[in-house]
Design a protein that fits this description.
two-stranded antiparallel ribbon, about 30% helix, 7 helices, 5-stranded mixed beta sheet
Length: about 230
């Protein structure tokens, strides 16, 4: 079965994280530690964990997010939903979503499901969240009320009918404007978006290296000390 029959046409213009060019990028991880976003940005707890690992990022990522926050129009703020993700959780989310696709599309081959799954979640070996390099976030007002972004943060391509794509068609004027505000603030500090998820932004991982033209990634998989 052809992947192109299952995904929006604009997928043809998107490099998914499953692309061999992403895996081919070398990783040379330095000493940049994981640090907490709490106290720097507004944080939502919908995908929180008891240890608070979900609020951790590399220090250079935190610095860029802090700079992006300060660049936003008055009354608009970044709202962090999830940052660091342990390898075990990443593996669980990936397999659950991929297996759901196999059940939803009888006859789909495993290799196709693996590619299709990466529209929504990265395989463990390539996942920016496990490196402390990525953050899922949205915009909110000063009362932490989320702004219109066109679909719920974290919605799958199936749930959102493709509205999760950054350049999705059919968005309201307010959603387009808010996505432009988010994009401008984060690209302005050197972060890159995963185009199938308007909320996912990263710095220093392999996908960032591919998009930005860097010859290597500066962050590989890591884990908080003492947890």
């Amino acid at each position: 079965m052809n992947l192109n029959t299952r995904v929006p046409r604009h997928d043809a213009d998107i490099t998914l994280i499953a692309d061999p060019a992403v895996a081919a990028i070398p990783v040379h991880d330095g000493e940049d530690p994981l640090v907490d976003l709490r106290g720097v940005l507004s944080v939502d707890t919908r995908r929180g964990d008891p240890q608070g690992m979900f609020t951790l990022v590399r220090s250079a990522v935190r610095d860029r997010l802090d700079e992006a926050e300060k660049s936003l129009p008055k009354g608009i703020h970044l709202l962090v939903v999830e940052a660091f993700r342990p390898i075990s959780l990443q593996h669980e989310i990936y397999e659950s979503y991929r297996d759901g696709l196999l059940q939803s599309y009888p006859g789909m081959e495993l290799t196709e499901a693996d590619i299709m799954a990466t529209r929504y979640v990265a395989p463990v070996g390539l996942a920016p969240h496990t490196c402390g390099a990525a953050v899922d976030l949205t915009l909110c007002d000063s009362n932490m009320v989320e702004l219109d972004m066109g679909c719920e943060e974290g919605a799958t391509p199936e749930e959102s009918a493709g509205a999760c794509y950054m350049e999705a068609s059919g968005l309201s004027a307010s959603a387009r404007e808010n996505r432009a505000i988010l994009r401008g603030a984060l690209t302005g500090v050197g972060m890159v978006n995963y185009p199938t998820e308007w909320w996912h932004w990263s710095f220093g991982d392999r996908y960032w290296a591919l998009v930005s033209g860097a010859d290597q990634a500066i962050y590989g998989p890591t884990h908080p000390d003492g947890i």
